[in-house]
Write a structure and sequence with these properties.
The chain is 0% helix and 46% strand. The chain is mostly beta strands and 171 residues long.
Length: 171
C-alpha cells in the first residue's frame, strides 16, 4: 500500500489474493471534539465487515484529552496519562475478532479499546502502550458481536502527539 496523506481512509478486502477497494477515499471524517466534555468525540462511526481491513491515517495533536488515567489491564499499568487522543467508534457487521494496530509517528503512545466512549463509564477491553516511535500497539478483542459499537482510542501520554496509522481488521 502506498503512502497516503492523513485523513484518508482506504479499505481493502482480500478476495482470493486480489486486493479490491472496500471504501472510497476521503469518506472518513474523524470526530471533531467540541465543548468542555467533547461529547462529539465518539460520533464518527466506522463499520467493518468480516475479512475486511482498513487503514486510517490521522494526527492526535488535533484531539482532546478525555482519558487521563490508564487502568491496570492487559499490557497497561495504572497511571496518569495526560495526552490528546482521537476516538474511533467501530461497529462490526458480523461476530469475530477485532484487531486494532497502531503505527505511530510519535513516542509515548497508548492504544485502548472500550465498550463505551471514554468518560461514559464503559469497560476497557484491551490496552497497550509503547514509549518508542518504532513500537506498534496492538489491541485484540475476541468474540466481538455484530452490530455492537466498540471504541478504539489512539492516545498519547507525557503530552506526546502526532501522526499515525490505525489498522483495523475483523477476522
Amino acid at each position: 500500500m502506498g503512502t497516503l496523506s492523513r485523513l484518508v481512509r482506504l479499505g481493502t478486502r482480500l478476495v482470493l489474493g486480489l486486493s479490491v477497494s472496500a471504501c472510497a477515499i476521503d469518506d472518513y471524517t474523524p470526530p471533531t471534539p467540541s465543548g468542555p466534555d467533547a461529547g462529539d468525540a465518539c460520533t464518527s462511526l466506522t463499520e467493518i465487515a468480516l475479512g475486511e481491513s482498513l487503514s486510517l491515517f490521522d494526527d492526535t495533536s488535533r484531539g482532546t484529552d478525555l482519558t487521563t488515567s490508564s487502568p491496570m489491564f492487559s499490557e497497561c499499568m495504572p497511571d496518569e496519562r495526560i495526552g490528546k487522543e482521537l476516538v474511533f467508534p467501530v461497529r462490526p457487521s458480523s461476530s469475530g475478532t477485532l484487531v486494532a494496530t497502531l503505527h505511530p509517528q510519535y513516542a509515548h503512545h497508548w492504544l485502548h479499546t472500550w465498550t463505551a466512549c471514554p468518560g461514559s463509564g464503559g469497560d476497557v477491553l484491551d490496552c497497550s502502550f509503547g514509549s518508542m516511535i518504532e513500537d506498534a500497539d496492538v489491541n485484540q478483542i475476541d468474540e466481538v458481536q455484530a452490530g455492537t459499537t466498540y471504541y478504539v482510542v489512539v492516545d498519547g501520554w507525557m503530552d506526546e502527539a502526532g501522526e499515525f496509522e490505525l489498522m483495523l481488521a475483523l477476522e
